[in-house]
Specification:
about 20% helix; 3 helices; three-stranded mixed sheet
């Protein structure tokens, strides 16, 4: 789920991205919040030399196969149980300039 501001950023880099709306209702405070869920493509591009945790749920040292990524700015990483959203450096820098919060950044190497 992402905020409207983050969805606008995704649209800037991936204009054809589709989204689903999610409405969260706080019955105690009588407030509603709207979030969007992007339909990110899932790419199986994790190199076999990547270092994973013992339970294979976390990537310790990630290496991506550049030829599978092509020119995607943001996508979901396939072949691992935990959700990893991968974005290129230009996208991440743009998010920081817009002061988008809630991202955890980890650097991956691309071959």
């Amino acid at each position: 789920m992402v905020s409207k501001e983050f969805a606008d950023l995704i649209r800037l880099y991936s204009p054809n991205m589709k989204f689903k709306n999610i409405y969260l209702f706080d019955s105690v405070n009588q407030r509603t919040a709207v979030y969007l869920v992007p339909d990110l493509p899932e790419i199986d591009c994790l190199h076999e030399d990547s270092e994973l945790s013992r339970n294979k749920g976390e990537i310790i040292n990630g290496i991506l196969l550049g030829e599978k990524i092509q020119n995607l700015s943001i996508f979901r990483l396939g072949t691992i149980e935990t959700d990893y959203i991968i974005a290129n450096l230009e996208f991440v820098e743009s998010a920081y300039r817009r002061e988008i919060r809630g991202m955890k950044i980890k650097e991956f190497r691309v071959l």
